[in-house]
Structure formats: structure tokens, C-alpha cells
Specification:
3 helices, two-stranded antiparallel sheet, globular, 79 residues, alpha+beta
Length: 79
Amino acid sequence: MLDRVVANGLAFDLALSVWVLQHCPNLDIEIERIFRALRPGGVLFAVDMKHRAIPTDKGWVHDGCNVFEHLSTKFELIQ
């Protein structure tokens, strides 16, 4: 749905992500999706763990990715 509204020209000033990115199997794709949805100068407020908890058939696993390192490829991180 987000891709559709962005394709139709809608852009946001702020995005809020709380305890979500750590669970997304395709982290970089989701970060890019959020980045495209924000206007230039838009802000992403994210609360997450540094490690990930990806749901698998073997339970929740950490795939070695650091959420904040991946965010820093598109966003300036402010601690």
C-alpha cells in the first residue's frame, strides 16, 4: 500500500517505526521504502534493537545484521 500512495505522489514529513525493522526479513528493502516515502528533510523516528529477531521455522533468529548500521546508509543517525 505504501508503494502505491508514494507512486501517486504522496510524501510524508515523518515516519515512525517502533520495534518493527528488527523483524523485517528484507531490511534494506524496507529501509529504502521508508526513505522513498519521506519528503526531502523528512524524519524517521525508529526504536529497535541493534540485533534482529527474524521469524523462522526454527524460532526467532539473529541474522547478524545491525539495524542501525543499515539505517545509516540512508539516514543521519541521531542518538
